[in-house]
Structure formats: C-alpha cells, structure tokens
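Notebook p. 47: complex prediction with zinc ion.
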Amino acid sequence: MLVDAPSVGEALLAPLAALEGHWLEVTCSGCGTMTQYPLRLMALRIGGVRVLGEVVPRLVCKRASCRARPESDWLCKTPNRTFNYGAEPGWSVRLDQRVSRAG
Ligand SMILES: [Zn+2]
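Predicted complex, structure tokens below:
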C-alpha cells in the first residue's frame, strides 16, 4: 500500500504486488461502463511481479459485446475516486495521460 500518491511514471513501474489494496478505475470508451478493479485480485490472476504499465495498455471492456479500450484509467488509493458512500476517497492518479493509443 502506498501512503502518498505516486507519480504517473512511478505508478506504471510499480509491480502489482506493491499496489495490493489499491484499485484501478477504468471507464470504457465504447459503452461508458465504469469499472473499479481491485489490484489484489489482478495480482492473483496474472502475477504480482507484473508492473502496472504492462497491464494498463491491454485493458479492454469486460462486456463481451463491447471489448472497447478504456477512455480513462485511474490508479486509486481506495475503491472510490470521488466521494460516494463507503470508504473515503484517497489519492488518485490518472494513468492514461502517458499511455499510447497508437494502433
Ligand atoms: Zn464497453
């Protein structure tokens, strides 16, 4: 767990194991669905040694009828990037400002 927000570069170089407890918030560019994904689960599925920068460019919408690329990707301290019910929002870092969309 990171106490303070990392820079975008630091976040993209961080292994998933170091980000356990944090969340990815992804908004689909196709259908607009917003998904909050726990990085602890992602580490379990694909391995904690993978770095976030490997994962983010490969994200696609989970809806089989869509499968579009995200419009935005955020690394968030807590599940809530903005205030809602439940846990207070912590820091969040927008990752896609550096992610290439070429191709
Ligand atoms: Zn979608």
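Notes: The mean pLDDT is 90. The two ends are 34 Å apart (CA to CA).
Next step: compare against the earlier run before touching the bench.
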